[in-house]
Amino acid sequence: QVQLVESGGGLVQDGGSLRLSCEASERTFNPYIVGWFRQAPGKERVFVGRITLNTGEADYKDFVKGRFTISTDNPRNTVYLQMNSLKPEDSAVYYCAATGVDGKQYIYWGQGTQVTVSS
Known about the structure:
single chain; 119 residues; mainly beta; seven-stranded mixed β-sheet; four-stranded antiparallel β-sheet; 11 strands; 53% strand
């Protein structure tokens, strides 16, 4: 079973930046889409953005558009979430998830990494 491992979370000040990583445990893992989600305390998990791996195209929710960027490093089997101009309302546990080869649903989930933005 493929495992996704997120890293890079931490505490940052308002306006700061962080880069999250999502690494797959198997080199042969070939999902169609990798997405990022977040869940703040007491709230539901929400979609942040995703990247289609064979095209490199990414799309984002409006509340992060222009501030967050998703990219890939195929040799390292890693997807990144670069987060700039962070705001306190971005504080949450961030999860990466991957679909199968058909891209129909997110099957594989990481354990999450905490991001805290102080005001």
